[in-house]
Amino acid sequence: MKLYTAMKPYAPKTWDLSGLDGISDATLETHFKLYEGYVKNTNLLNERLAELRKNEKNEGENPAFAELVRRLGFEYNGMRLHEYYFDNMTKRPSALSGGKLYEALGEAYGGFEDWKRDFMAVGGMRGIGWAIAYCDTTNGAITNHWIDDHEDGHVAGFVPIVVLDVWEHAFIKDYKPAEKDKYIEAFFRNIDWKACEARLP
Ligand SMILES: [Fe+2]
After folding, report:
1. What are the beta bridge partners of residue 109?
2. Which of 60, 85, 137, 144 is the most exposed place for a label (fewest CB within 10 A)?
3. Would you say the C-alpha torsion 167, 168, 171, 175 has a positive or negative sign?
């Protein structure tokens, strides 16, 4: 049998986002720790799976193996979506009032402001998850999607352009549970549109 080699662990990224408008440093500090937990758990899952593979315990009938494989979507997405989220914020934001991204976001919704209204509505849905504006690489269309937890609702092959965390931990230190809309407005004041535009395929 070919020897199984365990994959290289992921290293957590860091961001300098202190002083955001409407999203406190205390919230960010907690959030960075949660993100680091996802990186740690992704690595842990891979280590444990590597161990099972090494011992030829990677069988579909093995509940331990199956549970670890099922959790990959949660932990990997928890890691990667937070990276997209922190990457698309900046403490030196500039307004988006034209250009390639502005046009692309507005195309399927009638205009940028209509896209924004829809994206905010998706973010404002009840429950925990993510609002993501995704680009379909087959036709260039950008559409807004709701992701339950970290893993349910992604569209295969679509590229994330704007990524918003709407789990309660993202805003509960700064706003009341019923004030998610205020947090979403704050997110919009801190978006790094250049980073989002660079994601366009
Ligand atoms: Fe989060």
Report:
1. none
2. 60
3. positive
Neighbours of ion ligand 1 (CB under 5 A): 165, 167
| Res. 86: pLDDT tops 70 | yes
CA distances (Å), origin 51, targets 27, 54, 66, 121? 36, 5, 14, 44
Q: What is the pLDDT of residues 7-29, one digit of tens each?
A: 899 999 999 999 999 999 999 99
Is 7 within the bounds of a domain? no
198, amino acid identity: A
Tell me how far the alpha carbon of residue 167 lies from the centroid of ligand 1, in angstroms. 6
What does the pLDDT read at residue 4? 64
Classify 191 as helix, strand or coil.
strand
How far apart are the CA of 168 and the centre of ligand 1, in A?
A: 8
What's the CA-to-centroid distance between 4 and ligand 1, angstroms? 33
Please tell me whether residues 63 and 133 are part of one structural domain: no
The residue range of the domain holding 59 is 25-87
Q: How high is the pLDDT of residue 58?
A: 95
Ligand 1 center from residue 3 Cα (angstroms): 37
List strand residue ranges (DSSP E) for the chain, in order. 129-135, 142-148, 159-165
Q: How many domains does the structure of the chain reveal?
A: 2
| pLDDT, tens only, 154-163 | 999 999 999 9
Residue 2 CA to ligand 1 center (angstroms) comes to 39
On whether the CB atoms of residues 128 and 166 are closer than 8 A, the answer is yes
136: CA distance to ligand 1 center in Å? 24
